[in-house]
Write a structure and sequence with these properties.
Blueprint: H1 6-15, E1 18-26, E2 32-37, E3 46-47, E4 50-52, H2 59-71, E5 81-83, E6 87-91, E7 102-106, E8 109-112, E9 127-133, H3 135-138, H4 146-157
Parallel strand pairs: 1-7, 1-8
Antiparallel strand pairs: 1-4, 2-3, 2-9, 5-8, 6-7
């Protein structure tokens, strides 16, 4: 697969929106899984797992890749996902440059899991830590990114 070098990617980022997918993971008791982001954009905020859609990557495979790399979930655990809608996410910075803004066309999906995965077993490449939180608390938490608060309100409204 051909990847853009950092300079080419920054040029594209200056001119184009990116397509991304977030996973709003709910456990058996209805809590949302939140990770403390290591990287920009949204660095330092509690956020849902997610990632960019890659060129020529079918969307279902993107969801499975994100679930596997960020959560250690198998493809079989990522079959029952439901599209929440389409949101624009605008950030003043990017993963590679604090001075370059990012525009994501984001396609968040709800993923209902059976049971409660062990937080200590979740990967820490993209997040400094993990927590489970009720949608009601998530919707009003000051340390949760505003975009995720909107997801929480959606979950509450569609429960």
């Amino acid at each position: 697969m051909n990847w853009l070098d950092e300079g080419e990617f920054m040029s594209a980022l200056n001119a184009l929106p990116l397509v991304s997918a977030d996973l709003v993971v709910l456990n058996a008791v209805g809590q949302m899984l939140l990770g403390l982001r290591r990287n920009a954009p949204a660095q330092g905020w509690w956020f849902t797992p997610g990632g960019r859609v890659r060129k020529n990557e079918p969307f279902g495979e993107c969801l499975q890749r994100v679930a596997m790399t960020e959560l250690g979930l198998s493809a079989q655990q990522v079959t029952a996902v439901n599209l929440m809608g389409v949101w624009d996410h605008f950030y003043e910075d990017s993963a590679f440059d604090a001075g370059v803004s990012t525009h994501y066309v984001n396609l968040p999906h709800v993923l209902q899991l059976e049971g409660v995965p062990d937080l200590d077993a979740l990967p820490l490449d993209q997040h400094n830590g993990w927590r489970w939180q009720s949608p009601r608390d998530t919707a009003v938490s000051d340390d949760v990114h505003p975009y995720v608060r909107v997801y929480a309100k959606w979950v509450i409204d569609h429960a």
